[in-house]
Amino acid sequence: MARARAATSTRQRAEPAPRQKIRIKLRAFDHWLIDQAASQIVETAERTGAAVAGPVPLPTHIRKFCVIRSPHIDKNSQEQFEIRTHRRLIDIQEPSPRTVDALMRLNLPAGVDIEIKL
Predict the structure, then answer these.
(1) Label partner for 108 (CA 20 to 30 A): which of 1, 6, 20, 43?
(2) How confident is the prediction for the chain on average, in pLDDT?
(3) Which domain of life is it from (predicted)?
(4) All domains of the chain in start order, with CATH
C-alpha cells in the first residue's frame, strides 16, 4: 500500500501555466478624478481585448485633524479637518503586449496615484 502511494506522489502532475494578471491600484483625494481615471483604464483595456475586473471601490481612508480655534483659551472650541483618500482596484487578466503598450501611453488626470503590480 505504501509503495502504491509513493508511486503516485512522484508522478508529475500536469499543472496549468500561471495566468498573467495586472493589478492596478488607484488613489486620489477627489472621487470624481479617480472614477474618470478608472473608466479610462477599463475602456483602454477592453478596447485591446483584455478581460477586466473592476473598478472595485475600496474603503475610503479618512484622516481627521482637530485644531484649537483660539490661540489662548477655550479648548472646547475646536475645528475638525479631514483628508479623504479614495481608492479603486482594477484587475486585468491575460493582458496582451498591445494592452500593456496602450496602458503605458495612457494620459491620466493629475492628482491620481497609480500603483501597478504584475
Answers:
(1) 20
(2) 86
(3) Bacteria
(4) 27-117 (3.30.70.600)
